[in-house]
Design goal:
496 residues, alpha/beta, Aldehyde Dehydrogenase, Chain A, domain 2, 2 domains, seven-stranded mixed beta sheet
Length: 496
């Protein structure tokens, strides 16, 4: 209790501080002098103001990152020393876990318990995992046939990384980008989402405390069209790492193509979640509801298309409706809250618009379906379950990024595979079955970067994460992430 009260006091103190950019180890205001409001989605009130960066601020940050990349203090730092710094940062994050959890909850509406026991611990674990990889990035020797040569490869850092992250998991997304980049020896300019920048700014103060050389990590806050676009277009940024919408990802690719900058993209999804007739129904229902309603459905891998075997469809639908109706929706900082508000007024109107579109196209609401004025003044939307949905409906095709499930029956495994794969997206999928052959057949056949069997929303720093098709390319976690931040150099030594 005392630790929690101390965290509350620390968070309030942090909220009321000036929030500038973090460039070359210093807090600096925007050169324009402009700031932007940061809104508490649980109350729709202004939490604080944050620096509104633009191209001038990005220039400063990229210059700092470029200088740091060339400085001996970072470029010649041993891999072990890099790993020690990263581990120290993870230790500081663990020391301030409660504080970081409250900031993310307050800033973007994430239920506090999810932040406390899910995303913040995952961020800490990820930083520690990547700290271990700093000493294990290896090349290889190659027995060439071109003559008497000794041929070997080395993997070198790609250079300055421009990282742009979304608003739904602020701290975790930041660490996903930073962990692999730092382990590889890169320097970073990070732009957090304008809706939820605060935990990333708090992380910056821990970066200083951990002892990273100035300029290795830089953070510029601002709007996408101003700060984000300038970062993508900057000629001294060697690689762009982006997580966000498919539409913005395509725009980033076009801009980066002009100068052949490296790009990795983790984009949207419309993930199918398949409940077979032989599934453990109780487990499948609770897992599927987690799949769509975790973090208010503001998850790129949310299982928003739920396909249920026709013979158990009615029973499953009834249980899903009851589950949704009994969920506790409330203030993000309330420890009893299961689902908080969506992040912003824009997202609120977007989700309600999709619900209206579902009704208009003939789908039937069996649970939820509207705003929740009783939950408070914030951006609260009821957990919503639709029946009588067809694959052609908007709510079954487009990413809603909100608490809206489209539940549809299917008659055969091959049929549901075809329907699941028709989507332009391919980020994740879920399968619920007690038949091992069915599990492997579906896992093999579904076009998705991750397939969960008898589970949903399970993540680990050691397991790769990324999508197929318009869900992007590149893998964020596991050793695969290091490929995004290194270049392979081939060396030939004549032996004559």
């Amino acid at each position: 209790m005392e630790q929690s009260l101390n965290a509350v006091a620390a968070v309030q103190n942090f909220i009321h501080q000036p929030h500038h950019h973090y460039i070359q180890g210093q807090w600096v205001p925007s050169q324009s002098g402009l700031a932007m409001e940061d809104i508490d989605p649980s109350t729709r009130t202004v939490l604080t103001h944050v620096a509104r960066g633009n191209g001038d601020d990005i220039n400063r940050a990229v210059e700092a990152a470029r200088q740091a990349f060339r400085e001996k203090s970072w470029r010649q730092m041993t891999p072990q020393a890099r790993g020690v710094l990263m581990w120290k940062l993870a230790d500081l994050m663990a020391e301030h876990l409660e504080e970081l959890a409250q900031i993310d909850s307050l800033d973007m509406g994430m239920p506090l318990r999810q932040a406390q026991y899910g995303t913040v611990p995952m961020a800490i674990d990820h930083m520690r995992y990547m700290a271990g990889w700093a000493t294990k990035i290896e090349g290889e020797t190659i027995p060439v046939s071109a003559g008497p040569f000794f041929n070997y490869t080395v993997r070198q850092p790609v250079g300055v990384v421009g990282a742009i992250i979304p608003w739904n998991f602020p701290l975790l997304m930041a660490v996903w980008k930073l962990g692999a980049a730092l382990a590889a020896g890169c320097t970073v300019v990070l732009k957090p989402a304008e809706q939820s920048p605060l935990s990333v700014l708090r992380l910056a103060s821990l970066v200083t405390e951990a002892g990273f050389p100035p300029g290795v990590i830089n953070i510029v806050t601002g709007y996408g069209p101003e700060a984000g676009a300038a970062l993508v277009a900057h000629p001294d940024v060697n690689k762009i790492a982006f997580t966000g919408s498919t539409e913005v990802g395509k725009s980033i690719m076009r801009t980066a193509a002009d100068r052949m900058a490296r790009v990795s993209l983790e984009l949207g999804g419309k993930s199918p979640n398949i409940i077979c007739a032989d599934a453990n129904l109780k487990r499948a229902i609770s897992g599927s509801m987690l799949g769509i309603f975790m973090n208010q459905g503001e998850v790129c891998s949310a299982g928003s298309r739920i396909y249920v075997a026709r013979e158990i469809y009615d029973e499953a639908l009834e249980q899903m409706a009851a589950y949704a109706q009994n969920m506790r929706v409330g203030m993000a900082l309330d420890p009893k809250t299961q689902m908080g508000p969506v992040v912003s007024a824009e997202q609120y109107e977007r989700v309600l618009g999709y619900i209206a579109k579902g009704r208009q196209e003939g789908a039937k609401v069996v649970a939820g379906g509207g705003e929740m004025s009783r939950a408070g003044a914030g951006f609260f939307i009821e957990p919503t379950v639709f029946a009588q949905v067809t694959d052609s409906m908007t709510i079954a095709r487009e990413e809603i990024f909100g608490p809206v499930a489209a539940v549809m029956p299917f008659d055969s495994i091959d049929e549901v595979i075809e329907r699941a794969n028709v989507s332009a997206y391919g980020l994740a999928a879920g399968v619920w079955t007690e038949n091992v052959r069915t599990a492997h057949y579906l896992a093999h056949s579904l076009e998705a970067g991750t397939v969960w069997v008898n589970a949903y929303h399970v993540y680990d720093a050691a397991a790769p994460w990324g999508g197929f098709k318009q869900s992007g390319f590149g893998r964020e976690m596991g050793h695969h992430a290091l490929e995004l931040y290194t270049e392979t150099k081939d060396v030939w030594i004549s032996l004559q």
